[in-house]
Amino acid sequence: MSDVFERLKSAAQEDWDAYVNHMFVFRMGIGALPQAAFQRYLVQDYLFLIQFARANALAIYKSRTLADMRRAKAALSAILDVELNLHIRLSERWGLSSGDLEQAREEPATTAYTRFVLDCGASGDLLDLHTALAPCVIGYGEIGARLADSLGPAHLAEHPYREWIEEYAGPAYQEVAAAARLHLNALAERALTERRFGELAGLFGEACRLEADFWQMSLTI
Fold first, then answer.
1. Above 60 in pLDDT, residue 1?
2. Which of these is catalytic: 83, 107, 120, 136?
3. Domain architecture of the chain: domains with CATH
4. Quick check: is 142 catalytic?
């Protein structure tokens, strides 16, 4: 079977491009993203990750094999022990504690995307859930790697958003993204039919649109 993630991207190319090439990403890449927009993003993404941790906990419950359970546990650990800590470190520079982040109000774009993913998991199976998660989990790896490559080591060293870019371009997160892609393929081998592919492409496209709305929220609040 061909790479399912690439097939989903092709089926939802317009939505994918609007997400990964959003003005938020472009401005971050050239170092022109307003600090206030990045701060808003960090706060909302912290709340976002809490809900994504719940989605991976749901994946453990929905799993039918120990291998799937261990995969979901690893993804849950990556959020709770790595990604959330990055947000705390960055936010502390502006005087925001982890308590401040947890008590912040979820913006509608945050609620819309995270509850969409949780609903995909609650009403569907693991393939539905991981299709909805893929634009975020794998997409952030692609965005981080692209930004790092375009900047190069010299420019990245002085970049205002260096730590964020390095986190998602770095080997640890790239391994997470690669594992997510392989797991999506494994799930598809078990459960994907051509009739079902259209439904999954719809979920993937909607997740990309919600990701783009999330970037836009950070620019316009």
1. no
2. 136
3. 4-220 (1.20.910.10)
4. no
